[in-house]
Write a structure and sequence with these properties.
single chain; mainly alpha; 10 helices
């Protein structure tokens, strides 16, 4: 029984990996179950044993992307770093996941594609925004953000700015320069949002990176081509 359960878990993971690669390259509409099955290297029966439809499979990938993000948020939250540094860490960690994890890339593409024509999944963005808002409130108390900044508006802006940066990076360089572009984002933002007496700390804050966030899946690889 234990071996059967282990095989079932491995098969499901294989399906999700194959589907993620297909969705990332072809999008939700363009991906067919036949291509997903071929990419996964499994039978139609194996796929339907775990997933009833392409939509269910797509939402599973978005859920896994969300879980990966939440794990990183929690890990960064445990670090002994000022809130403004944790916001910077969060953006760079999300960028790292996008570059190295095909399930994260697929989840983002599915979310954006479904949102174009219908109400797509909102949890990943809402959780990022809520986390950033909480950190912004702490950063104001800690004196690292201007006191007149409104945390809800600031959080929505930061996540929107990051989304735009990673999208342009994808279009122009297949995200090969994403780390640098996120660093540029904070280089331009920090002087305008931090009190003048904290400006000497900008270079250190801009370089903040998480040391405790999950490294991601063993099979995660940068995108090809």
């Amino acid at each position: 029984m234990a071996q059967q359960q282990a095989r079932a878990v491995a098969t499901r993971a294989q399906i999700v990996r194959g589907a993620a690669e297909t969705f990332e390259k072809q999008g939700y509409v363009g991906a067919s179950l036949g291509t997903i099955i071929e990419n996964a290297g499994l039978t139609k029966g194996a796929l339907y044993f775990h997933f009833r439809s392409k939509e269910e499979l797509a939402r599973c990938i978005v859920a896994e992307q969300h879980a990966t993000s939440i794990a990183s948020v929690e890990a960064i939250g445990r670090e002994q770093a000022p809130a403004i540094e944790q916001i910077v860490m969060l953006c760079h960690e999300m960028a790292r996941q996008i570059v190295h994890d095909p399930i994260v890339r697929a989840g983002i593409r599915i979310t954006l594609e479904l949102s174009a024509d219908e109400q797509g999944p909102t949890d990943p963005y809402l959780d990022w925004i809520n986390t950033c808002e909480q950190l912004a409130r702490r950063a104001i108390v800690q004196g690292d953000l201007q006191p007149d900044i409104e945390p809800p508006r600031f959080a929505r802006f930061v996540i929107g700015a990051f989304t735009g940066v990673q999208t342009v990076s994808q279009v122009l360089t297949q995200r090969t320069d994403l780390e640098q572009r996120v660093d540029d984002m904070w280089t331009f933002l920090l002087p305008g949002i931090m009190p003048a007496d904290r400006h000497p700390d900008i270079d250190r804050i801009r370089k903040a990176r998480s040391v405790g966030a999950p490294l991601g899946r063993v099979d995660a690889q940068p995108p090809r081509g």
